[in-house]
What does this fold into?
Amino acid sequence: MRPIAMLFAALALLTASCGPTYQPLQPGATTRLRTPDVPYEPSSPEVVDAMLKLAGVTAKDVVYDLGSGDGRIPIAAARSYGARAVGIDIDPKLVALAKQNAVQAGVADKVTFRNEDLFEADFSDATVVTLFLWPEINIKLRPKLLATLRPGTRIVSHWHDMDDWKPEQTVRMGRSNIYLWHIPAR
It folds into this structure.
């Protein structure tokens, strides 16, 4: 075999073996979840509190945190506001950590964590959705938010806006902003 052909063969084998590295936690699942869109970067407790205050979270709310990481936003929503909360994250290790954190915080009965792809997950029962993603992910997610959430559902994003969908309110937090939108009437 010629050296260039050997190189292409080696690259083909390497590429074939480099699929997504994240496995779902659901029993019986047969498909792999893809690589995360953004690296995990937790919001500070002050930002978490400001996000939930800006959304006006109450005990009547169902709060979904998309890209929930260690679970700090859903846990705070349940602990401080009495809300039912759901965290969705593509990284099974973070989902496991979030579940442990909910138990330690004493809110495991009010918080659920799901190992899912946020672009495929069902979060249509949300009354509040929190985000700390990247701008292009917010924009890619926006059509799903607008199509599946009920009018009046509050969307709160830390750091990144949604391009030409102008926020109704913006709160400055140090070097970043927190943005609020409501799903409009159809």
About this structure: The CA atoms of residues 116 and 168 lie 29 Å apart. The chain is about 35% helix and 20% strand. Residues 3-16 form the longest helix (14 residues). Helices lie at 3-16, 45-55, 72-81, 92-105, 135-148.
